[in-house]
Amino acid sequence: MSRSAFFQSVNHYFNRAARHSKYPKGLLEQVRACNAVYRMRFPVRADDGTIKVLEAFRAEHSFHRLPTKGGIRYSEKVTLDETIALASLMTYKCALVEVPFGGAKGGVQVNPFAASPGFLERVTRRYTAELIRKNFIGPDIDVPAPDYGTGEREMGWIADTYKSLRLNEPHPFACVTGKPLAMQGLPGRKEATGRGVFYGIRTALEDSELLKPTGLSTGVAGKRVIVQGLGNVGYHAAYFLQKEGGAIIVGIAEYEGGLWNPDGLDVEAVFKHRRETKSLTEFPGAEFHHDSKELLERECDLLVPAALEDVITAENAPRIQAKVIAEAANGPIDKGGEEILLKRGVLMLPDLYLNAGGVTVSYFEWLKNKAGVSFDRMISRREELMKRELVQEIERLTGKTFDDEQREHLILAPGEESIVNAALDQTMTRAYHKLGHVLKSRDIPDLRTAAFLSAIEHVAASYEHHGIFP
Ligand code: NAD
C-alpha cells in the first residue's frame, strides 16, 4: 500500500529523532506502531430521503497510557492513513506536554461545510454508536475531541448519544471533551488550541539565541503575521497574537481566497464578516486575492498555517519569505518542504509542541468531568479570604487605605477560565524549556527533532517502567 505524503513525513520525523535515542530498536518500533484501528462503513439518511453510505475511522495509536485521546475530523478527504498519522502525533503531543494519555484520532468522510446540521447530527450520533459497539469510546478507554470540521456542537451530540446508551457509566460526559458549557464543558476549551499557539509563539520569540539565524528581534509586538485558515485554531491564534501580543496581522488566507493589508487587518472584524457572508470577499479596506496559496509566499515575519497538512512542500518552500513558521495545524510542512526551509535558516515551531494547548485543556475538562467539581469551586473563597487578610495587613503596615474598587479588584478570586488559562500558559512555557534543554544538552539541530525525541523517550520510558511486555 502506498502511504500518503503526510504519513511518510510523520514517519520520517520519527525515524530521524529515534536515531538520537539509546532505547532498543524493538521498543522504539512499539512506540511508533499504531496499536488499534477501527474502520467502518455505515448508512445515514440524507435530507432528500436517499441513503448515503459513509466511510469512517478511529485509530488508537498508543496504549502506554489510558484513555487514548484525540480529535475527530470531518472532511471528504479523510483517509485511514491520515487518521493513523494524526493519532501518532497525538501520542507524541501528549507525552511532550505531560498529559497522561495515549494518542488517538477519528475521521469521517463528510464535508461539514456543505452538509445540513440535521445530516451532521445523524452522522455524529451513528458514528458514536459505532464507536460504542466496538468499545472505541469511553471515559477510561478513548476520549474524542474537536478537530478540523467539528466543534462544540458535534461533541455535545457525542456526549448525549453516549450518555443515553451507556446507562451505568458514572461519568458519561467524560467520554468526550470540547463540549458546550451547558454539557459540562470547560470555559476556555474552545479557544485553548489557538491560545496555546499564541503562548508557544510568545515563548519562542523570547529566545534570542533561537532567533539569531532569522535576524528577527525578540517579542511578538509589531511582528507582521500571515495566517492560513480562519477556523477555530487560526482565528483564536490570530486573535490572541493581535490582542494580547500586539502583532500586525497583514494577511489572512481561506480556501476561497485571501485578504492582504500591510497596515494590519482587524481579526475580529474579518471573522465576523466571513461568518455573516460566508466569504472573505468584499471585506472593506483590504486587497482580496483569489489565489490564497500565493498569499503564504508574501513578505512577513511569521507565517501561521492553521488549516490542513502538506501546505508547504518542496514546490513552494523556496518562495516562502516568512522567517518563522508556526505550525498551528497538524503537519502543514511536509518533509521535502522542511528540508528546504531548514537549509534556508527558517525557524519552524513544530505542531507537536505548538498546538498541544487543545489536548492540554481537554485533559483539564476530562479531570473536571471525572471529579464532578469545577476548578474554582474548591479554592475561590479561600483565595479571597487570604487576599483580604493580605490587603488588610498592607493597609496596616503602610497606613494607607485602598478605596472599595481597588480593594475588590485586589481580592477578587480567579474564575475557572483564568485558572485554566494560567495552567495552559504554564504547560506551554514548561514544555518549551524542556525542548530547549533537549536541543542543547543532546546537540539536536532543530526543534522538531527535539520535540519528537523528547516525546519518544517519554513513551518508551513508560513502556519500560510498566513492564507491559509479556
Ligand atoms: P476548523 O474546521 O475549525 O477550521 C479550519 C479552517 O481552515 C476552515 O475555516 C477552512 O475553511 C480553512 N481551510 C481549509 N482549507 C483551506 C485552504 N486550502 N486554505 C485556507 N484555508 C483553508 O478546524 P480547526 O479545528 O481550526 O483545525 C485546523 C488545524 O488545527 C487542523 O490541522 C487540526 O488538526 C489542527 N488542530 C486542531 C485542534 C482543535 O482543538 N480544534 C487541536 C490541535 C490541532
Low-confidence residue ranges: none
Question: CA-to-CA gap between the ends?
Answer: 31 Å
Q: Which cofactors or ions or other ligands sit in this model?
A: nicotinamide-adenine-dinucleotide
Indicate the radius of gyration in whole angstroms. Answer: 23 Å
Biggest β-sheet: count, sense, barrel? 7 strands, mixed
Tell me about this structure.
The model has no long low-confidence stretch (mean pLDDT 96). The protein has 470 residues and is of the alpha/beta class. The chain has helices spanning 5-18, 25-32, 80-96, 117-133, 152-165, 189-204, 208-211, 232-243, 267-277, 292-295, 335-343, 351-354, 357-371, 380-398, 404-411, 416-441, 447-466; strands spanning 36-45, 51-60, 68-74, 102-108, 142-146, 224-228, 248-254, 257-260, 287-289, 302-305, 324-326, 347-349. It is built from 17 helices and twelve strands. The chain folds into two domains: 36-185, Leucine Dehydrogenase, chain A, domain 1 (Rossmann fold, 3-Layer(aba) Sandwich); 186-376 and 414-448, NAD(P)-binding Rossmann-like Domain (Rossmann fold, 3-Layer(aba) Sandwich). The radius of gyration is 23 Å and the shape is globular. Nicotinamide-adenine-dinucleotide binds at residues 71, 146-149, 193, 228-234, 253-255, 292, 306-308, 328-330, 355, 358.
